[in-house]
Amino acid sequence: MSNSDPQKPSTPLHSVSVAGVVVRDDGRVLVIRRADNGRWEPPGGVLELDEAIEDGVVREVYEETGIKVRAERLTGVYKNMSIGVVALVFLCRPEGGHEQLSDESTAVAWLSPDEVVTAMNEAYSVRITDALNSAAAPMIRAHDGRNLTEPAGN
């Protein structure tokens, strides 16, 4: 792509999102059913320009679920190759609040790791399984919105 148009960047633009894999002491994981597509996913959304990354995770989880969390550590970086979204996923612990719906969620639930695998597309369930593997360094993965498109990056 040439840079003949001063309004167009010479490099591709990506959207950056954040998501929280919120795990209770009993091992159950907080998930939402998205209002826009009906799919079960970890809560998350677009990182705001003036926002620290961990603050974005805390905000998004609270907005979509009513649960206040503490972001503990980065567990993975995931790129949706079909739409250019890069998601930073964090392991989080609940610190208060109560489950509630939002404009972005039609259901909020605490699922077991096994339930996650059956309820979600691979591109989203892997975020939870990666986060629950506490011994692993953050994973780097690519997907098409439903399925992984290449093996794990590390």
Give a short overview:
With 154 residues, the protein is of the alpha/beta class.
Commentary on this structure:
- This protein is an alpha/beta fold and 154 residues long.
- The chain has helices at 53-65, 113-119, 122-132, and strands at 15-22, 29-34, 40-41, 44-46, 67-80, 85-97, 105-111, 139-143.
- Strand 5 (67-80) and strand 6 (85-97) form a beta hairpin.
- Helix 2 (113-119) runs antiparallel to helix 3 (122-132).
- It is globular, with a radius of gyration of 16 Å.
- The model has no long low-confidence stretch (mean pLDDT 91).
Name the structural class. alpha/beta
Cα distance spanning the termini = 31 Å
| Number of E strands | 8
Helix content: 10-25%
Radius of gyration: 16 Å
Nearest-integer average pLDDT:
91
So what's the overall shape?
globular
Widest sheet, order of strands: 4-1-6-5-8
**Biggest sheet architecture:** 5 strands, mixed
Question: What are the segments in which pLDDT stays under 50 over at least 5 consecutive residues?
Answer: none
SSE inventory with pairings:
Layout: E1 15-22, E2 29-34, E3 40-41, E4 44-46, H1 53-65, E5 67-80, E6 85-97, E7 105-111, H2 113-119, H3 122-132, E8 139-143
Parallel strand pairs: 1-6, 5-8
Antiparallel strand pairs: 1-4, 2-3, 2-7, 5-6
Helix pairs in contact: 2-3
Task: Provide key terms for this protein.
154 residues; 5-stranded mixed β-sheet; alpha/beta; 3-stranded antiparallel β-sheet; 3 helices
